[in-house]
Design brief:
Strand 1, helix 1 and strand 2 form a beta-alpha-beta unit. It contains three helices and two strands; from the N terminus they run βαβαα. It has a domain of 57 residues. By secondary structure, it is mostly helical. Strands 1-2 form a two-stranded parallel ribbon.
Length: 94
């Protein structure tokens, strides 16, 4: 299943990437189950970090940077909405 916002261009792109049988749901802004705000916030964080970087000249450099950044983002970076805990620290409570 692919959840997107209301941009009509996604319909063709999803079909091209995943095939005609892919389930597509258009999220609503206040619908908790089909909401795109979390991934859009994540994309904004990644974009904010990478827009100032000019030394990522090849795919391998980009992959190494992204892998390291994901570890920092998920395990080390304090998140204001989680009481300054990293996102994956809340899974320790289960």
């Amino acid at each position: 299943m692919v959840i997107t916002d209301k941009l009509a261009a996604y319909i063709d792109g999803i079909e091209m990437a995943y095939g005609a049988d892919a389930e597509h749901r258009q999220g609503l802004p206040f619908n908790v189950q089909n909401n795109t705000s979390l991934i859009e916030r994540f994309h904004n964080s990644l974009k904010e970090r990478t827009k100032v970087m000019r030394d990522l000249r090849d795919r391998e450099s980009l992959k190494r940077f992204t892998d390291g950044w994901l570890v920092h983002y998920n395990f080390l970076r304090p998140h204001l909405g989680l009481g300054l805990r990293p996102p994956l620290s809340i899974t320790d409570r289960r």
